[in-house]
Amino acid sequence: MDNLIFSFNVIMPIFIVIALGYFIKEVGLIDDRFINTAVKFNFRVGLSTLLFENIYVSKLSDIANTKLMIFVFLCIFGSVLVLWLIVPLFIKDRKRASAVIHTIYRSNFVLLGVPMGMYMLGKSHMGPISLLLPIVIPTYNFFAVLVLAAFDERGDKSGIGSKIKYTLVGIVKNPLIIASFLGIVFQLFSIKLPLFMERAVSDVASLGTPLALITLGAQLEFKSVKENLKYSITASVGRLIVVPCIVVTLAFLMGFRKYDLGAIFILFSSPSAISCYVMAEEMNSDYKLTGDVVILTTFFSMFTIFIGIYLLKSLSLL
């Protein structure tokens, strides 16, 4: 019973706030313009400050884990490679195939990783989450460009190099990457902020989690989910069940436990990233199918993550 209560208390606050975001959008309290502005603000200010604070208050020796970083990178690379080889065998439409690959391998770790980590691991044990964000963000983006460009039906491959270059520049300029770098620098050189600055940073960082969840809920649209149901369900099962089961099992066999294993579970069990939809629309993938998968995985992840947390707690792995 204790494990059920723990799992419930981790997952329900997250999805209640997501539901709040959906509700206030539906009743007209906020519009698309506000949502877009809030998303940009939170990405550049709220979440970035929160990531900096998490690294700043941690001991670098506690969060530096080369084994964890390499394992996560190889799992993402391996999932992309396997999907690239298998999905086209069953889905001949290249736009649909790219959408399925993209939504299965890429999770919403940026928006859900931090809040879920805080509820599941505790604020004082956010080191593994903070460590993985600067690894996951460039890896996800780089492989997204490769996959979507390679499956582009227009056949114009001359732009792949420029797209990759554009992505690499975007990675360097990414606020979360910059915040991670600054946090590491402050740790390495033992730079201490004045008390008033620490309090200001903490206040701004506190915006990151609730605003991320509210805007996530506000961006959900359930009207078109019935389209492409066969493919969206397939991708959702891959994203929420197949990938986390395989990766968490491998992580267990590799000796990961407690907070490291929790971070791996959060990363690979999170729903498909909302940014998948934006990239799919820009790079000639099936953006409607992508949007359907994002919606389905976000909704059903409430149940799959709950079950996953319960199992990990019951097996004393968390």
From TrEMBL:
It holds the Pfam family Mem_trans. Gene3D superfamilies: 1.20.1530.20. Its main location: membrane. InterPro entries: Mem_transp_PIN-like, Na+/solute_symporter_sf. It is a multi-pass membrane protein. The chain crosses the membrane at residues 6-24, 68-91, 103-122, 129-151, 171-189, 201-220, 232-254, 261-280, 292-312. The keyword Transmembrane helix applies. It is found in: Cell membrane. It comes from the Bacteria. Keywords: Cell membrane, Membrane, Transmembrane, Transmembrane helix, Transport. Belongs to the auxin efflux carrier (TC 2.A.69) family. PANTHER family: AUXIN EFFLUX CARRIER FAMILY PROTEIN. This is AEC family transporter.
